[in-house]
Amino acid sequence: MRIKEQLKQLKPYQPGKPIEEVKREYGLDKVVKLASNENPFGCSEAAKEALQQEIEQLALYPDGYSAALRTRLSEHLNVSEKSLIFGNGSDELVQIICRSFLNEKTNTITAASTFPQYKHNAVIEGAEVREIAIRQDGGHDLDAMLAAIDENTQIVWVCSPNNPTGTYTAESELLSFLNRVPSHVLVVLDEAYYEYVTAEDYPESIPLLEKHPNLIILRTFSKAYGLAALRVGYGIASEALIRQIEPAREPFNTSRLGQAAAIAALSDQDFIASCVKKNAAGLKQYYDFAKTHGLRYYPSQTNFVLIDFNRPADELFQALLQKGYIVRSGNALGFPTSLRITIGTKEQNEEILTILAEML
Ligand SMILES: *Cc1c(COP(=O)(O)O)cnc(C)c1O
Questions:
Q1: For ligand 1, which residues put their CB under 6 angstroms from it?
Q2: Which residues neighbour 11 within 8 Å (Cβ) at sequence distance 6 or greater?
Q3: pLDDT number for residue 240
Q4: Model confidence, pTM
Q5: Which residues are reported to carry the modification N6-(pyridoxal phosphate)lysine (predicted)?
Q6: Could you identify the atom of ligand 1 that is nearest to the CA of residue 221?
Q7: pLDDT tens digits, residue range 15-60?
Q8: In terms of Cα–Cα distance, which of 184, 174, 205, 166 is closest to 333?
Q9: 45-266, what's its fold?
Q10: Index of the ligand 1 atom closest to the CA of residue 92
Q11: Average pLDDT for residues 80-100, to the nearest whole number?
């Protein structure tokens, strides 16, 4: 057998440690996971009710076109139904886009550090990955990313807000970038944390699609909507672009449960608003802590924060783990002395900061 050469250099995705495993390993009753930017407040009650109903239909395949969700979401976003594509999480949309655009003769441009799945999927397709260091302030260096484009460049990935820094690309920067990107290059704007953003100069990206047919926006129900388990993400782009990538999508890639819950969750915007408010208060707990202890952090527009503790991240990670707190070590993310911590409930944040204070 002759497996693709590039697969030999890849490792499977390393997820945050599961709660059950940590409980067993360390003999703990209570374990709090603040490692994968899940919503600590769960999801809307309306979504849970919709799931109860849908459970009667488990024997039936889902609607492969996600028609009901498509209609509901197109109303919510004020876009046409044909400008949407659904994925088994936005992770799958990253895969679909890579399958559609990349091969051995092409290259793609990402920030370093950013969401690792862009590179991972690009490598599987055999494409060259050009990684452009982020700026001192954590933002994408869009000028350098532009300069790296050549005639074989197929995709530029812009993660805004960026994971793992939590920083965002301001409207003026994004506009200037889009106006200069050659039309043969697809720009993927990953807005997984869109709902959490409060910055006033964060661009409203959907209206930009009209002028930029080479733009696709990715969003998800996994983060603020609190439906990570159900795997529903979506892309928004010109109808022509969506039509071109649809054949690369699996026929039944989103589940009945996912579609039903997402429809209900969209109708409960009060839930989102209350989570965003509590998240902002939680972020402030971490900022206050960092200021008190003289620690550097990136101001975040997300439900996580990257804090530099000036000591090996893996050690801090391990010490927190033993006390029942799962966070993300910055080591594998390109920040060897930082932790990426998901904003939890007020009490969870207090508890974790108390432990961290003792360790510092
Ligand atoms: C979490 C995350 C995703 C993936 O979300 P799913 O919809 O659950 O696959 C995509 N992009 C970024 C930047 C993320 O942080």
A1: 37, 89-91, 115, 159, 163, 190, 192, 220, 222, 228, 233
A2: none
A3: 98
A4: 0.97
A5: 223
A6: 7
A7: 767 888 889 999 999 999 999 999 999 999 999 999 999 999 999 9
A8: 166
A9: Aspartate Aminotransferase; domain 2 (3.40.640)
A10: 9
A11: 98
Cα of 359 to ligand 1 centre, how many Å? 31
What does the alpha-carbon distance between residue 192 and residue 63 come to, in Å, rounded to a whole number? 24
Question: How many A from CA of 303 to the centre of ligand 1?
Answer: 12
Strands 233-237 and 84-87: antiparallel
| CA of residue 357 to ligand 1 center, whole Å | 30
Distance 37 CA to ligand 1 centre (A): 9
What pLDDT sits at residue 327? Answer: 96
Give the type of residue at 226: G
Instruction: Give start-end residues of each CATH 3.90.1150.10 domain in the chain.
Output: 15-42+270-359
- Mean pLDDT of the region 207-220: 98
pLDDT in tens, 173-205: 999 999 999 999 999 999 999 999 999 999 999
Determine the 3-state secondary structure of 342 from DSSP. strand
Helices within the chain (DSSP H only): 19-26, 45-54, 67-77, 90-101, 117-124, 142-147, 171-180, 239-245, 256-266, 269-292, 313-322, 346-359
Residue ranges, comma separated, of all CATH 3.40.640.10 domains in the chain are 45-266
pLDDT at 294 over 90: yes
Contact 96, 240 (CB under 8 A): no
